Amino acid sequence: MTIKALFWDIGGVLLTNGWDREQRSDVVRRFGLSAEAEELHERHKLAAPELEVGRMTLDEYLEQVVFYAPRNFTPADFRAAMEAESRPNEAGLALARDLGQRWRMYSLNNEGRDLNEYRIRTYGLRDFLQGFFSSCYLGVMKPSPAIYRLGLSLAQVSPAEAVMIDDRLQNVQAARYVGLHAIQFVSAEQLREELAGLGVE
Ligand SMILES: [Mg+2]
């Protein structure tokens, strides 16, 4: 079976993670919130899924998770610090840009709408991804099998014609369960080799 489409995770593959554990602890420290880190984490755990499936805006999330008490900084300050945590993975981006010239490619990623769009715009992801199958638009998150099936339907390819690229093993296994080829991203070089094994060069 020939591969017809590539689905890309973004955080941990093309860019750093958007708002994962390391990004949160870094920002929490910089705003002097370390004493409240546990409270923030508990609040994050409840609000984050709603943010990522697009039922909560970033402002609403920040109101619940950070601004539940008076602060000496503004939501705009905090948001800017969140955005500054997003950095490119240059090797992953270079490989994706190259492949994008010959292959049909989409994102298939978990992210809230505001941060997703900041990251897409800032790192030119529209230049090589033809569509964004993001949890915030689809209303369902990885590793639910439903998001992989939606991605396949929206791209109009069968599971055997698709490759999922993701850094998280649980998501890779979920994609395989649905029948997609799936590669766990470790490095751009390793990804290039594994893709070549599927005839994607
Ligand atoms: Mg990831």
TrEMBL record:
Entry superkingdom: Bacteria
Assigned keywords, A-Z: Hydrolase
GO molecular function: hydrolase activity
The name this protein goes by in its record: Hydrolase
